[in-house]
Design goal:
Elements: H1 2-21, E1 49-54, H2 60-75, E2 83-87, H3 92-106, E3 110-114, H4 122-132, E4 135-139, E5 155-160, H5 164-177, E6 182-188, H6 194-207, E7 213-220, H7 225-239, E8 243-248, H8 251-263, E9 271-272, H9 278-285, E10 292-294, H10 297-312, E11 327-329, E12 333-335, H11 340-348
Parallel strand pairs: 1-2, 1-3, 3-4, 4-5, 5-11, 6-7, 6-8, 8-9
Antiparallel strand pairs: 10-12
Helix pairs in contact: 1-8, 2-10, 3-4, 5-6, 7-8, 9-11
């Protein structure tokens, strides 16, 4: 597990470098055009700027997302450098400011793929894009009352994942490994993130069938390895031997947890993760993790950019698509020790080639709101 220690040590340095790389030559958020095209009279662009706005590339999951975006750009016969990177480092304020600045720089001729960092930030991002005549597709985070079909063609699509069910299954794996008794802790993502909420709910749903297991604590680790390491260390100090299982909201959190456990000489704690990053899949194969859940970030990153681009160029008209094509779930695949190496060979060692015009092929049905 030496890579985990190196991951923890290098993350701060790498993050600083990516912050510097996020600059794209625009100083501040320039004034928006006073009158943008109506959503019902959307402009068509022959060669719009293509951009991905995301947290940072030091996270293996987001690296795969952006790699998918680059693969899509290359499918157009362009260099992957044609993709503009807006790196927000987990700041919703920076996310919105960067988008507004790029809208001004491109005069709205933009196809934007974006995770808005938290759900409330999605509306101002979408409204800024629509007002400027740009095309935007969102991933993961938005509020339940924000829908692409309310904005004509310019808000192209939203993709998320139905995390509650898979997270419940990973929780059951942990709870069974605990023998159905003892104490479990949960380390989550950013508290306002949709996936963080759903993955904690999945654990709580599973716990209803395990009356002899106590949820000792659940704390946000902000999808961050270093933060997870600190939170898990604090859990171990506070609860000690009461902890008999750990439910992690994503793989990079699990890396921090495993390093905290290793520091205390604990090697056999049941731990599950989520995302299906290559390092996590290997840890599953080595039985250091009990399971992870693959969400195919490469496809998700590529198809989100493709939807925005092909709408912007007039290849298809979003408003003519059914609602389930505008709000849909991405795919999920469970990875366990029994199938980890086969999965790794099929999906990670050689990335499948995707048809970026098959917008909904691997998707997993419409988003259903409770």
């Amino acid at each position: 597990m030496s890579f985990i220690k190196k991951f923890v040590e290098s993350e701060t340095i790498s993050r600083r470098n990516f912050l510097l790389a996020s600059a794209y030559g625009v100083s501040g958020a320039a004034a928006m055009r006073m009158f943008g095209p109506s959503p019902l009279m959307a402009a068509i662009y022959s060669d719009p700027t293509i951009a991905w706005s995301y947290r940072n590339r030091t996270n293996p999951y987001w690296n795969e997302i952006v790699s998918g975006g680059e693969a899509f750009v290359e499918s157009l016969g362009k260099s992957k450098d044609f993709l503009t990177h807006l790196i927000n480092e987990g700041s919703s304020e920076k996310s919105l400011a960067d988008v507004k600045a790029l809208l001004a720089k491109t005069n709205g001729e933009l196809a934007l793929a974006i995770d808005t960092n938290d759900a409330p930030n999605a509306r101002p991002v979408v409204e800024a894009c629509v007002d400027a005549g740009a095309y935007v597709s969102t991933l993961w985070n938005k509020t339940n009352d924000l829908h692409p079909w309310d904005f004509g063609d310019n808000y192209v699509s939203h993709m998320s994942w139905s995390d509650e069910g898979p997270a419940e299954q990973t929780a059951r794996i942990v709870l069974e490994a605990m023998g159905g008794k003892g104490g479990v802790v949960h380390l989550g993502g950013i508290a306002s993130n949709n996936p963080a909420i759903e993955r904690l709910n999945g654990l709580k749903n599973a716990l209803k069938d395990y009356p002899d297991v106590e949820l000792l604590d659940a704390q946000p680790a902000d999808w961050d390895t270093q933060k997870a390491n600190q939170v898990m260390s604090a859990f171990l100090t506070r609860y000690g031997d009461e902890i008999t299982g750990v439910h992690c909201a994503n793989d990079t959190i699990a890396y921090g947890v495993l390093e905290a456990l290793r520091a205390e000489g604990i090697e056999d704690m049941p731990v599950t993760a989520y995302d299906g990053n290559p390092q996590a899949v290997q840890l599953v194969a080595d039985r250091k993790l009990l399971a992870t859940v693959f969400t195919n970030p490469h496809w998700g990153g590529g198809i989100t950019a493709a939807l925005a681009y092909y709408a912007a160029t007039g290849f298809f008209k979003p408003s003519e698509e059914p609602n389930e094509h505008r709000e849909f779930n991405g795919p999920t695949i469970f990875v366990t020790p029994e199938d980890a190496l086969e999965f790794k060979a099929n999906y990670l060692d050689s990335v499948p080639t995707y048809d970026w015009q098959d917008f909904w092929g691997p998707s997993n049905g419409p988003i259903v709101y409770k």
